[in-house]
Amino acid sequence: MMLPNGKIVDILSEVMCELCKWLQDTSTKAEAGGYIVGYKHSQTGNITLEDVSTPYSLDKRTRTRFVMHDPRHRLFLFQRKFQKSYYMGGWHTHPQNVPIPSSIDWDDWYGTLEVDKTGCEYAFFIILGISEMRVWVGDFRTKIIIEIQECQKQNGIYLLR
User: Fold this and answer.
1) Considering only CA atoms, which of 133, 155, 151, 107 is closest in space to residue 36?
2) Contacts within 8 Å (CB) and 24+ apart, 72-78
3) Nearest-5° angle of CA 116, CA 122, CA 126?
4) pLDDT digits over 38-93, tens only?
């Protein structure tokens, strides 16, 4: 996916597989969410998102709400930091085919840009719907949040602008 600064963010396939386990594809599944970790490549400036925390027993989960309460999410971040994988943002699910951020999501994201710090100049916000995933990035400097898209491909190779 192309970032506003022209660099690339790559979401590892293992992350995608883990996220897909939490899709709300039946009416009985509650929202899920967690943190995203990754790193900025020192030579290219590109970003890799390489792992996520997933719901724990003390989190609050309903069909339309997820709130991280379990301290194991913070432990996840602490442990990954020793592996040079840093907090990059958050993810959660929505019980919609194509997820649309709620006002709660927008408020939370703007709050993140005010108080959090990630391993790069952006915070990543992923929402998984039943049939589509959408990704937004918030710029810590400008406080602007935009949706980013997958890069164009030609013959299976991603093209830069």
Assistant:
1) 133
2) 73/34, 73/35, 76/34, 76/35, 76/37, 77/35, 77/37, 77/53
3) 90
4) 999 999 999 999 999 999 999 999 999 999 999 999 999 999 999 999 999 999 99
pLDDT bracket for residue 153 (50, 70, 90): low
Taking Cα atoms as reference points, which of 50, 21, 14, 24 lies closest to residue 124?
A: 50
Burial annotation 26-35 (CB, 10 A radius, 16+ → b, else e): eeeebbbbbb
- How many CB atoms are closer than 10 A to CB 46? 14
DSSP string, 58-72: TSEEETTEEE---TH
Lookup: tokens for 103: 């006002």
108 backbone dihedrals φ, ψ, rounded to 5°: -65, -45
Domains of the chain, start order: 9-158 (3.40.140.10)
Q: Taking the CB of residue 102, how many other CB atoms lie within 10 A of it?
A: 13
